[in-house]
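Notes taken during the Thursday session

The instructor put the following on the board and asked us to keep it in front of us for the whole hour. The protein is Receptor-like serine/threonine-protein kinase. We were told not to look anything up and to reason only from what is written here. First, the residues (793 in total):
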Amino acid sequence: MEASLGALIFPYLLLLICVHHPLARAEDTVSRDRPLSGGRRLVSSGGNFALGFFQPDDRAPNRWYLAIWYNKISKTTPVWIANRATPISDPNSSQLTVSEDGNLVLLDQARSLIWATNITSSINSTVGVILDSGNFVLAPASNTSNFHWQSFDEPTNVWLPGAKLGRNKITGQTTRFISWQSSVDPSPGYYTLEIDPNGGDQFIHRWNSSAIYWETGRWTGNMFTGVPEMALYPKETLSYKFTVNNQESYFVYRTNASIATAMFIMEISGQVKTVVWMESRKDWVPFLALPKAQCNVYFVCGSFTMCTENAVTFCSCLRGFSKQYNGEWRYGNPSGGCMRNVELQCGGNSSRKTTADGFYALAVAKLPDKAWGLATVSTDGCKEACLNNCSCTAYSYAGGCSLWYGDLINLVAPADSSMGQSMYIRLAASEFSNPTKTRKAAVIGASTAGAILVTLIVIIGILLILRKRSFSEVNKVEGSLVVFRYRFQQYVTKNFSERLGKGSFGSVCKGSLPDGTLIAVKKLDSVSQGDKQFRAEVSTIGTIQHVNLIQLLGFCSERSMKMLVYEFMPNGSLDRHLFGSTPVTLSWKTRYQIALGIAKGLAYLHEKCRSLIIHCDIKPENVLLDANFMPKIADFGLAKLLGRDFSRVLTTMRGTIGYLAPEWINGTAITAKADVFSYGMMLFEIISGDRNADWHRKGAETFFPVLVAMRLPEGKIQDLLGPELSADVNLEEVERACKVACWCVQDDDNTRPTMGEIVQILEGLVDVSFPPIPWYLHVLAQRSNFSTEEASH
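Then, after some discussion, the predicted structure tokens were revealed:
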């Protein structure tokens, strides 16, 4: 399993590949006799980097910066800025030159000093040279390899390959990179990454040069404990080294310069991301984010905001507050936070009760820090204590009273509101409904509640009767779920003795009800919900019915024991038929119907349910087959049942990462298109009958998605099939399935089809063009061709 994990993550790592284009040789040196100004640029000897003046925002024509950027990439991407806090207004009358004392200096139009290297040297005949590594150096004109100063020692927000990030123990100098203030303002922001100043072999993320909000964990020799993915990186693509000696402590990484354009960048939002250039998208693509959770970044959303993980807009104002646009929200920096719509009245002790402030309940993942505690007061006393202090903005009561004064920060939305902790946010009275209307509503509500209560009593009575019948006549229960007792489950499964398998969240056992109905009982190991919430969630899942979704018959919830009872599938899971030790040869007709049925089931989850359900774990192990080999998607309810915890487990789960879309790895929002990607990877396996993971044992040229990418445009469909399928295969269907699989695994989720469209394509109702080869498959195909040509020579 560990081997397959490394193998399956390799295609994602190949997103580091980019295609370079040769450029003509240009001047790479600035000197006292040849200053740099206006639109003139320096270009490194190999053409990789350029140095010159640029402006990040066309709407601010008087803000120019001296910067280094990638020269062969169409999108201007500054990797170092000299004067990031002090822009110049006119590059034509400003200049970068070498001063009489041998320093590099940037002078504005008034010849005032804007920036300088500030080195002390007896050699004043120096020049500045931009190197092909992106390093800008100051060196003697006679020996440019002897650096007096280098930009690698003073990074801005980017850490380039080959640059040391660490501390010089002799000089005391520490290299750190710092975020931009906003997308149009490169001045130093709040977030930094640096080596642990206490001497630990790790790196720390800081906010405002003080608060530590994330650590990489200690260095183990091949990875940081907080970044286990490092152990999986192929060394021929990405290599790294942590050095500790008496002179310095530093970390350095390198990429294969002939095939990779990649860098680490400290984002405005406080995450350090590995980004790679994707030529097909003409943009940088995030590959890895640290920390993975955006909401773990300190003060990421500012005051009086809520951070919601995996949301497109992860920061939002609390009720009663509005955005402070001077905080650069529109430029990707929401840390300015939100401000009150109506100021507090501080009327807690006033006889004018209509002007008193009020509170509303807010569910948060955890209570924020910096609370003041009052242990001896009641709930009402806690509320009054907050009202009696004009600086108090919120309170919470959970066995003790907690009060918050001033701005509220670092509020994170829970995965499920019923799982969060409650705190009460203070607002002015005018932010709440009119008291008279409220009283009327309360009277109406009470009357309605009485009627509803009577109805509920009747319904509960009916359900109790049905429940009583269910134990003796389970197969006759329709439209509702059976609530099983734990002892009953022990009896029908013979004390869980006949295990069918072990899934991601627990074991599955076979059972037989008293009337002979066969069942599969899944014991859940990863559900922490209380009994009431579990019942509510399962009841919702139980209403979802589709011929290609496994049917939930009932459940058991007693104390910490949670079980789901499903219909029994006599032909087991799809993976056993495709990859088992004694695999059953499935005909092409059967495989195609399985692929179509899975697509129909996913389309129902995505498009036909009352609320969208993303499965999050599509793979052959989660597709079960009935007696007629009709596919039924299993565990589809766990995505809803386990909420955001499900995604957190998946990202670290071994053996399923090969089906995960790039979104899971680069930390962007997860949509239904993540299921589409997983379906595409599984469809390759259904067509080939082999695990995609097995390619690493034989070489990249045997990776089936690569074979499809290479031969589909050539029309060599027959070559993709083994001899067991060639007899009865429908080549039109094979081509259709291959096209669908390639469309599903496109790098950009917006270009992937919906599951509804996939159903129409597979049914032959809609024709589909040849897809563009997914980028990482294109790279693998190129590498395969190169290896083949090399072997032939």
